[in-house]
Specification:
mainly alpha, Helix Hairpins, 2 domains, 92% helix, rod-shaped
């Protein structure tokens, strides 16, 4: 391999390693960001409760101001003919309360606006967080499955290698046994030749005799000797 190809291969391997490390770090960073987002959402929820409580208090004040305005307005109308001075005091009080109510209404409007905006942002943040968690969980699950598949594939390949090695050994053993059997057969043939057994076998196969004939031959030989 040329130096250029070697450098390219090493560079590609390095880049892949860096990418793998970055991906692994990215999941860790995402987990940390998710935890921080949950804390922020919790704090936003607490702020929302606080604003809602203040908004409720402002509403109660305005309701109280309205009740006082009604009361002093009725008193002013009631005493307008009989006690004008008292009626004027009641009317002045109505004016003061209306000013207080107007100021409180501005505060209430601000609370309601902030509460609505915070609610909307909180819903959006929760939805985004839920989607992010689902995607991260999916990536982690896929990663775990792929790791299991790689591990299973590695074990399977290793098992296949062991089986192949065992089959190769079995074939060698069978070959050695066949060679040994052939050698034993050759030794037996040589022994027959040396002892003459091979020739006797050949004569028997040809119908001759190497040390004895049939019963008729033996009887004829005996009778011929007695004549």
């Amino acid at each position: 391999m040329s130096l250029g190809r070697l450098w390219t291969a090493l560079k590609g391997h390095t880049n892949k390693s860096l990418e793998d490390a970055a991906d692994s770090q990215a999941l860790t960073i995402l987990d940390q960001q998710i935890r921080e987002a949950k804390k922020e959402i919790q704090l936003c929820g607490q702020s929302l409760h606080s604003i809602a409580a203040k908004r409720k208090m402002a509403q109660n004040k305005i309701e109280s101001y309205n009740a006082d305005i009604d009361k002093y307005s009725q008193s002013a109308a009631q005493h307008a003919e009989t006690n004008r001075e008292l009626a004027l005091e009641c009317a002045q009080r109505v004016g003061e309360i209306e000013n207080l109510k107007a100021s409180e209404q501005k505060i209430l409007d601000s609370y309601m606006k902030n509460e609505g905006s915070l609610k909307s942002n909180l819903v959006t943040a929760k939805n985004n967080l839920r989607m992010l968690e689902q995607q991260v969980d999916q990536v982690k699950a896929t990663q775990a499955v792929q790791k299991a598949q790689v591990a299973a594939s590695t074990h399977f390949e290793g098992g296949n290698s062991k089986v192949k090695t065992a089959l190769d050994s079995l074939e060698r053993i069978k070959q050695k046994q066949a060679e040994r059997e052939a050698a034993l057969d050759a030794s037996a043939e040589l022994a027959e030749i040396e002892t003459g057994a091979d020739l006797d076998n050949k004569l028997r196969q040809a119908g001759g005799s190497a040390g004895g004939g049939s019963s008729e031959d033996m009887l004829a030989k005996i009778l011929a000797g007695k004549k």
